[in-house]
Amino acid sequence: MSLPLIIGGAVFVFGACLGSFLNVCILRIPIGQSIVRPPSRCAACGLRIPDFLNLPILGYFILRGRSRCCGAHLDPRYPAIEAGTAILSTTLWFLYPPQLFAVYLFLVAGLIIASGIDLDYLVIPDAITIGGVVLGICASYLVPEIQRQEDAVDAMIRSALSAAIGGGLLWAVARTASWFLQKEAMGIGDAKLLAALGAFLGWPSLPFILVVSSFIGTGVGIGILTGRKRKLGVKVPYGPYLAMAAILWLLGGNSFTSKYLFNNPIFTNR
Fold first, then answer.
1. Would you say 20 and 27 are in contact if contact means Cβ atoms under 8 Å apart?
2. DSSP string across the chain
3. What is the reported pTM?
């Protein structure tokens, strides 16, 4: 077996373990619990999960979807997040050099946490959004390549401006929509999340993220209304769609936009 495949396999395993940790963050952050202690416990009865059963992806299938201690059903989202994180980690590893891989994997991890919490509580914690803006600006200074700059200060300034553009743009859209509808159309947390995405990915990513997330959100919303016969006005979290669009940007949306729409090197990440 070649060395790249061995390293890729190691990254996959690391990604699965990271996904398991992200599940803990999604469960504990909204209720103010430590993400480090206590060790993983059954969500139904609170008993500690033995280490040999606390295996990413495999543990769910070994237990056949039920908790060993009390027989409660395990959420299939757990292995889905673990597998998804493992696949995304491996894909990013083969797409980007190590420094960019580390930054983008950190971003993806934050997006997964934000999406999980938004789905459960219809809110995205400021620690993730505002913290993401700060970390994106710092990461741009340390790794200027993520802003397609050579100078660290220029990259940091570009990151800050991109965050302001992203957050301000979506905030303006949300306020305008709320004025027309005479009710809240979108949470301010979504604007903060787009600001964080701008800080990490730069302003060229923002049009793509907004357009693609709108298409995804519209498609999912129509499916919910027709499949479950829900009435209009039901709140649907928008954060996961922003996250999906940002991940698609990382996985090739940037190259597609540059090649087929703008044909301008400023829109490429490499």
1. no
2. --HHHHHHHHHHHHHHHHHHHHHHHHHHGGGT--SSSSPPB-TTT-PBPPTTT--TTHHHHHTTTB-TTT-PBPPTHHHHHHHHHHHHHHHHHHHS-HHHHHHHHHHHHHHHHHHHHHHHHS---HHHHHHHHHHHHHHHHH-GGGGT-SSHHHHHHHHHHHHHHHHHHHHHHHHHHHHHHTS--S-HHHHHHHHHHHHHH-TTHHHHHHHHHHHHHHHHHHHHHHHH-PPTT----SHHHHHHHHHHIIIIIHHHIIIIII--GGG---
3. 0.88
Whole-number Å distance between alpha carbons of 130 and 107: 13
Q: Are 22 and 85 a contacting pair, CB within 8 Å?
A: yes
CA distance 158 to 36: 35
Closest CA to 17 of 93, 90, 104: 90
Tokens representing 66? 């039920």
Domain extents in the chain: 1-95, 97-270
pLDDT, residue 44, reads 67
For the segment 175-188, what is each residue's pLDDT rounded down to a tens digit? 776 667 666 656 78
Only one residue has tokens 């690391």, namely 14
- Mean pLDDT in residue range 112-119: 96
Q: Which of 245, 158, 237 is nearest to 194 (CA)?
A: 245
Q: Which residues pair with 48 in a beta bridge?
A: 41
